[in-house]
Amino acid sequence: MKTAFSRRDFMKLAGMLTASAALPKHLTEVFAAGLERLAESTRVVWLQGQSCSGESISLLNSIDPNPADLLTRYITLVIHQNIGAAQGQTFMDTLDKARLTKDYILVVEGSIPLNMPKACIIGGRTFEAILLEMIPDAKAIVAAGTCAAFGGIPAAEGNPTGSAGVKDFMEHHHLSWRGKLINCPSCPTHPMSIVGTLAYLAAGRFPEIDETLLTPKMCYHHSTHDQCPRYHDFERKIFAEHFGQPDGCLFKLGCLGPLTHTECPHRQWNSGVNWCIRASAPCIGCSWQDFCRKKDFPLYRIGEASHAVSYTEHDRSGGTL
Ligand code: SF4
Ligand code: SF4
User: Fold this and answer.
1) How far is the CA of 118 from the centre of ligand 2 (A)?
2) Which residues, listed in sequence order, are joined to residue 209 by a DSSP beta bridge?
3) Does residue 284 have its Cβ closer than 6 Å to ligand 2?
4) Residue 29: count of CB within 10 angstroms of its CB
């Protein structure tokens, strides 16, 4: 049962959402209104396909608000394969009931096996068939995580299932994604990106999105590189020589920060405890659309010869990225 929240509680979380990504202050009101609606009336249907449940775990790892508050008080989550109590036929009946309301936001976690639909079955129905039923009546669709957004690890070169992200799935089935689909990549996606996007949608607004990546600009506008605390070292050509080195740009250790767009440098992870580069580990490009797609994609690489980004001296002096 939901416990009553005061306007002050909603404003507090909205303020955190805004501050954690250094967003303009006027968005606090939008988030607060959206959170209130998420808690009171907006249904969220969360489905998992070819996924490791990373997005759900990431959401459960949020500290403030804690997972119990987030899921039982802030979000009206009507369906979730891991967290929900409904099992078997009850689960499928709840899903059908939610669909008939035609009043829900659909969150998709994981990719969809386009060439082998039976590789992913829920309650005797293929994930593909369920999505074909749920997508048309959804008010909006949020592809949570890099697998749902771009295919991610299940779509790695040579995979037999023909894994696809939600956009490719919708195009394959001639469903229009414009003004309806929002990608929230990262492996896993940051809990505040999901909560912020859901709050924005529940407030009756559709966020401004990147035309190519379909990511909400409020959460994915900057490149990790641009905001990196080691950017000055990059500019001065001071490079770390080994993993764990507390100073120096990590580019020559394979850092893919120049290819990724996230708010990691601001938000960090585990409620601001740390993030990859602060831990002196290169960004492995987990929100990049080509993350782990190639067979020869090493997560770490030493030297520039095998780097996924080619730089010239002009680039390194701040030219193109
Ligand atoms: S290459 Fe990586 S470590 Fe270096 S400035 Fe860019 S994001 Fe930071
Ligand atoms: S720094 Fe890079 S690898 Fe680390 S979480 Fe952010 S986008 Fe992903």
Assistant:
1) 32
2) 216
3) yes
4) 13
